Inverse folding.
RNA sequence: GGAGAGAUGGCAGAGUGGUUGAAUGCGGCGGUCUCGAAAACCGUUGUUCUACUAUCGUGGAACCGGGGGUUCGAAUCCCCCUCUCUCCGCCA
């Protein structure tokens, strides 16, 4: 979340940036600042009361020590009054803090000033594109047909065992997935990321820390009995490693990569754009996460973007990079690049990666900070990106590389798949 | 799941009602010494909120797993929760 000092001291900038996300509830911010002014007054009064009480308690102690019990008893009564006063003030203070908090979490992250204004995906900015658009014959098959033709993924079986959106991968389909996972992990490790294997279930504090709670609760599967959430992305556990931590500046940048299953309820999604592998309730993803100094986080973002681009280049997939407009960005992000690959048989661009800088938005929530070389505490910036999400990559690979003789596997994967053709 | 023990600062570890934000050691930082380093010695060493201050800073409040209670006063006493360890059971 945004901090009150930012909203107070850089109000004009905050409003300008929030406008990019079509957040125009300026009165909410005024309300927060008003409540905070009140909070400071009440806190000051309570602190003064407590200080007086502490003073009296000390005096009572020394009076008893020298045997002046009567004088001590007078002071004790005085303290009883102060205690009641402080109790009321403390209650008021808690209430104010709560009111501030409730309002603060409703404010999305302020986008970077370079973010294009806009409301929908149509307003996004294509900032790069790369790769050869495949020329497929007229009878080319979409990946869901290729999947049945070569028996790579079994949706029916998933329906039976679990439900829609939980497919089984079989034979070469399973092997291809495993190959991609290993390829992505190896590439990230080569780029300096440390591999971690995170838990797939997280607690409430973690879901809150990265911003899934409170507003995106419906997106996650819950384990009610134990009050846990299935992760929608490895970003959640991996970023929360650093919750409640103060990192030394020389520990930066922190670079972690994790492969995980991801679970998303995707409530309200249906229709042919979710066919086949386009949208699933459970899927695999390799995620890169960095924690960076505020001065360099946008360089880090570009570095991550380049990493993702390079993966797609090696997979020989045509793609474009989209800078999301304010209206299409997530609540928590300050700047997001989406990577879309062209799935030639569907003739659709499929989002396979989202690379974002959250600036201090997540860090504030999870109390992650940096101590710089002067001993000053400051905000940390968190970033993450898919590198990459598997199902749509598989879809594009199958569709784009289909031939009369079978499906060609890109060269970089041969050593991982053990076969060159399906 | 059953029984017991415990949770203190970056780490180790004292502290069982009164200047204790907390002894001591280690680590970290600064200095003396040295050509330099080590050793030794000296000093320093958390976080959050807040008032005053141009700044350095000074003062106040809170924090000894989390929450509540007793008391003039709680790291210290009481209650609840969470977690960790040991033993037993179960088990990939």
């Amino acid at each position: 979340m945004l901090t009150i000092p930012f909203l107070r001291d850089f109000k004009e900038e905050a409003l300008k940036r929030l406008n990019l996300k079509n957040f125009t509830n300026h009165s909410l911010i005024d309300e927060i600042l008003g409540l905070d002014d009140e909070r400071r007054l009440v806190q000051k009064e309570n602190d003064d009361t407590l200080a007086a009480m502490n003073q009296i308690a000390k005096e009572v102690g020394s009076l008893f020590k020298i045997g002046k019990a009567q004088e001590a008893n007078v002071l004790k009564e005085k303290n009883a009054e102060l205690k009641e006063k402080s109790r009321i003030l403390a209650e008021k203070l808690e209430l104010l803090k709560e009111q501030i908090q409730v309002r603060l979490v409703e404010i999305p992250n302020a986008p970077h000033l370079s973010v294009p204004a806009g409301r929908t995906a149509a307003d996004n900015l294509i900032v790069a594109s790369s790769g050869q658009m495949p020329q497929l014959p007229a009878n080319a098959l979409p990946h869901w047909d290729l999947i049945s033709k070569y028996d790579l993924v079994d949706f029916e079986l998933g329906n039976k065992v679990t439900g829609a959106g939980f497919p089984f991968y079989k034979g070469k389909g399973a092997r291809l997935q495993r190959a991609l996972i290993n390829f992505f992990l190896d590439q990230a490790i080569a780029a300096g990321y440390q591999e971690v294997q995170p838990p797939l279930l997280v607690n409430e504090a973690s879901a809150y820390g990265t911003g899934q709670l409170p507003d995106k609760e419906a997106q996650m599967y819950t384990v009610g009995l134990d009050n846990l959430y299935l992760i929608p992305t490895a970003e959640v556990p991996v970023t929360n490693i650093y919750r409640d931590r103060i990192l030394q500046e020389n520990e930066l940048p922190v670079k972690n990569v994790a492969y995980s299953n991801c679970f998303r309820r995707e409530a309200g999604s249906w229709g042919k754009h979710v066919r086949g592998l386009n949208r699933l309730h459970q899927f695999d993803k390799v995620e890169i996460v960095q924690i960076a100094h505020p001065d360099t986080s946008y360089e880090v973002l570009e570095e991550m973007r380049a990493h993702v681009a390079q993966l797609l280049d090696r997979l020989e997939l045509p793609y474009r990079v989209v800078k999301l407009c304010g209206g299409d960005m997530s609540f928590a992000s300050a700047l997001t690049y989406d990577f879309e690959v062209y799935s030639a048989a569907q003739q659709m661009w499929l989002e396979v990666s989202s690379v974002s800088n959250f600036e201090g938005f997540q860090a504030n929530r999870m109390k992650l900070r940096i101590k710089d070389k002067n001993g000053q505490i400051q905000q940390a910036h968190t970033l993450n990106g898919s590198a990459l999400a598997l199902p749509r990559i598989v879809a594009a690979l199958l569709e784009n590389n289909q031939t009369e003789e079978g499906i060609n596997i890109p060269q970089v994967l041969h050593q991982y798949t053990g076969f060159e053709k399906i």
